[in-house]
């Protein structure tokens, strides 16, 4: 019941906000404003529903330290994508043909802010956190990572391998980032930094959603096994490897900080039946 009380409002905000952002896709400045507004509304609604359904202050979205943690996440996410694209470029799968579009990059800030915040609220703030209470950190990570990958199967140019790659490199990594810090700010920053670097800087496809206009006029070519094909570099083996490495780092931090939640005995007994 608590899951539904939090999930339904979050999904409604995400659906309405992202639809509004898509509807004004031709206007980069309206896209920016509506995207940031959707992100802010999603966080506000999440905080209110947690207070209402759990009778506690939502420390995971507390304002203290939010800017620093989000900034760190953005740097890690953007740096991780840059490492992926540089490795692809080294093997001839990506090149830059001049400068791209500043207004396109502005639009991507709004679009990716809405996507990153709403998805992190739903998948890490609600699903992972509540499932973790019953099934423990590791099972919650696996289950929500699979759901995150399945969600990306509905994108325009989605592939099964792309969805599997997203589940491994992003679903696992972002849940691990939450487990390590117990706030949503680092996962939100990671998610935004990765997506904005992919679309708003390097102008590559993001999760099968088609080509983007970024600060660079990037051209991807070569075998899909290397570049990720129509799904984008997220389906590249480089992205999977780097995502797995960060997952290991974050889970190691979570273990050292005592943040790993064990499987509850009652839940274990239920699963074994």
Automatic annotation (TrEMBL):
Q: Which InterPro entries match?
A: Rce1/LyrA-like_dom (IPR003675)
Question: GO MF annotations for this entry?
Answer: endopeptidase activity
Q: Name one Pfam family in it.
A: Rce1-like
Cite the CAAX prenyl protease 2/Lysostaphin resistance protein A-like domain residue spans from the record.
Answer: 105-196
List UniProt keywords, sorted A-Z.
Answer: Hydrolase, Membrane, Protease, Transmembrane, Transmembrane helix
**Which residues span the membrane?**
29-47, 75-96, 102-123, 135-154, 160-180, 192-215, 235-254
Question: Is Transmembrane helix one of the keywords?
Answer: yes
For this UniProt entry, which residues form the secretion signal?
none
Gene Ontology BP annotations:
CAAX-box protein maturation; proteolysis
Q: Which domain of life is it from?
A: Bacteria
Q: Name the chain's protein.
A: Membrane protease YdiL (CAAX protease family)
Q: Which organism is it from?
A: Nonomuraea rubra
